[in-house]
Amino acid sequence: MPNRWRSYCVFLLSLIGFMGSIACRAQGPAASSTKDGVLTGVVVDPSGATVAAATVHIEGHGIERNITTDSTGRFNLSLPAGSYEVIIVSAGFDPYVGTAKIIGQGTVTNLPASLVIATQTEQVDVAADTSSSTAGADNKSATVLKGDDLKSLSTDDGTFQQEVLALAGGGDPQQPPQVYVDGFSGGQFPPKNSIREIRINQNPFSAEYSELGFGRIEIFTKPGSNKFHGEINTYGNDDVFNARNPYSGTGPQPPYHSVHFYGNVSGPIGKNTSFFTDGSYNDQLNNSIVNATTLDANLQPLAITETVTNPQTTGYFSAKLDRQWSTNNTFTGHYQFNRASLTNSGIGQLVLPSEGYNSSTTTQTLQLSNTQVIGTKMTNEMHFQYIRTRLQQNPTDTSPTIVVQGAFNGGGSPAQQLHDNQDAYEFQEYFSLEHKTHFFRMGGRYRLYREANLATANYNGQYIFPNITAYQITQAGLLNGASDQTIRATCQQTTTSTSPICGGATQLTITGGQTNASVSTGDLSLYAEDEWKPRKDFTVDLGFRFETQSAIPDHVDPAPRIGLAWAVGQTDKRQPFVVLRTGTGLFYDRFKATNLLTTIRENGVAQLSYTLNNPSSDLYPLTKPSLSSLISSPPTIYQVAPNLRSEYTITSGFTAERALGKKGNVSANYLYNRGDHQWLTRNINAPLPGTYIYGDPTSGVRPLGTQQNVYQFAATGTTKSTVFFINGHYQATKRINLFAAYVIPAKKSDASGATSFASNQYDPSVDFGRTATSRHRLFSFASLDLPLGISSYTFFSWQGGVPFNITTGTDLNGDTQFNDRPAFATDLTRPSVVRTRFGNFDTSPLPTQTIIPINYGNSPSFVYWELGLSKHVKFGPRPAPEPLPPGTPAPKTPAPKPDPRYDLSFNFEADNVLNHVNPGVPVGVLGSPFFGQSISLNNPFQGNTTASTAANRLISFGTSFSF
């Protein structure tokens, strides 16, 4: 083990031991030396599920305190001896009113509280919680979804997942939202009905988080309950109810449907243990739609629209156990099993059915957590997670892949066979301490990834043609027995280009050699922060995080964080007029194990990958060259740049937030981000600029003196972006719940991710420009409870068009990449000029011409509206009212009768209820018969469960029974 890594491990173990010693010292004398007693309790709803973020107000003996329950519904408070009035308030429930007696001298008083669903307009005034309005975790820009908020989103798990991702700002493909399930990273979205609460964009600059809090999704699943409860539901759709996909052509379509089953059971196991178990199964017969241009029997271009059946089945099982070892010690164990099987995957748009493949994926997850509340001021949490993923993928065709730029992709799948094993381990240790006006948090996380697989990607070989005309000339020549020289000398004039197009493939790539490879990488992070309140209306949050990762050159990644919050106009009896927040921090990304595996496999020794420019037509299409015939050609290799840095972003932000009475809140936010050392891939042995002659593969001066392509993962990119967003949440009445958010992002970058190639290998900055993200995004959702047990919900989204890239479809600079862009035409008489509705472009740029910016095109905007209705029928015996705790006075008004034991509901949901056609991103390859056209639908909210690419509007029905 390297000395630096040994030091890191020693430091982490020392830190854990130090926290443990603090815990033991603090816990030991607490029972004998403190003058105060401890009031503790767990707040639950009628089903027994714990209620997080409930306000607990304690008053008596001249003392008035407000605290909130934690994520497990628990609260702890140190109080002098005496009798206190306790009021517990949470949205959607009637207030709980009781008394608690504290004896003192280190004793613990337990006050369990069960909340009742609100059925009347009783209101209890609780003083403003002045101790937490400026806390980092209380930012109103955060979105907390629970209860009615969750009901406002789709009942379909796939659509629900896409809606949550969108609310977290999921419009940037380069920086997708980070999802944490019960505090762990790398997990899968659980079914909606198993989720207790979702928090989005909370505590954005906390040092506890590796990523910026904006865009962070924290999902908390339901715990066990103290009474037996259960639910079973089913929903789905059929093609007879749906509106046809306008891009599926006019011919008949194969039938399609989707059926989903879900069920859960929870209850107690003895006095201190409870369980929650659930499972689901989905059977979906989907259709994939192909829109491409191929050749007919007479070798004439033929536009085809084909619908291919794409069956999918998924299964899920989960079991969760909660054990209360003592009042202040809780253990949770959680196991999940997921399996997905797909047939004819990878088909659609320009990809023909021959490129389909079948796959099955199995994922198992084990989570263990232990939370200790030490006295009244300290908490220690330990977490462990193991994720085991196994993937099997097999192609339906092993012939060479054929790529005709902008027309079709055919032949065998380039992915071919893949058997992939992934193992991910995660260890966490978190400690918090409250001391006077300081709240300290510290901890560490270690993650270990191992990936091993057998892969034969591109073992079948891949031929690339610049356009359908070149492919047509080649096919005609082969049919007539022409030689490669004759085929390449045969040229044809087209209407899409004023320059002649000649026959022959532009490039052949083929891989062979060793198929097995494995890699391991780990990352360690340590953090410490102090949330200091020098005044009741002002909070300073200072934090520092240290990160490191193995298997890459960069091992030292310091990340300072700072946050400030001022509650303007706040007093002991009045909420602030507005809360102003600002902060800044440095955030790193971790290099993926998959990319490291590529460098191990394709190192020029284990697996050999060759690229041939202008390959002989004598090989195409029934044969591929053997590796022995290419031994004289240097293979293409992948490597990590020796100076690779971890990419990072420096983010600064400002927020203004205001509470709308007790019914809601609104916040306005501005963020500025600058990313440095952004990852991309470069061919560091590409021909030097100006030395390559298009059409002559032997031309060009290469810096390494060989014809070898060396693809290097580098950290040379830069990103600059600003984001302004405003969001609000308003509970108009107990029956009406509203939420809305409007986001205006503006982002420019010259790197699109570690696996993306620069268009100019020696000057990636020429790609600096706007990214493929929408400039305007609007989201809103609402729920409404109607009479007669009917409830409705709706979700609406409008998004501006997404920029898309316009390319020539050719490799103009000899770097083996087909991402070159044309220039703005300055001489319309040149044969290389193409006239389009986006402008006049020159596909053979002169040195004096200006290359068009990246993502120069604009795709259509997007409009989506979802509507759902449900009817509830409640019946059966009513459970006995919850007994009041000893010493609790009777309420002033009689408590409402508990709901009947059984609930039967019938559900209806319409996705894209207006049947609005949302075109997908247009084809951006010049010379393509589809250039500038959309050949597919764009609907990210049609998720993976009941969605079908064969439908423009989906109608689903379901029923549910719970007890």
From TrEMBL:
Q: Where is this region: Disordered?
A: 876-901
Q: Where is the composition biased (Pro residues)?
A: 878-897
Q: Signal peptide position in this chain?
A: 1-26
Q: Does the keyword Transit peptide apply?
A: no
Protein's UniProt keywords contain Signal: yes
Question: Which InterPro entries does the UniProt record give?
Answer: Beta-barrel_TonB_sf, CarboxyPept-like_regulatory, Oar-like_b-barrel
This protein's UniProt keywords: Cell outer membrane, Membrane, Signal
Q: Which domain of life is it from?
A: Bacteria
The protein's name is Cna B-type protein
Which species is this record about? Granulicella mallensis (strain ATCC BAA-1857 / DSM 23137 / MP5ACTX8)
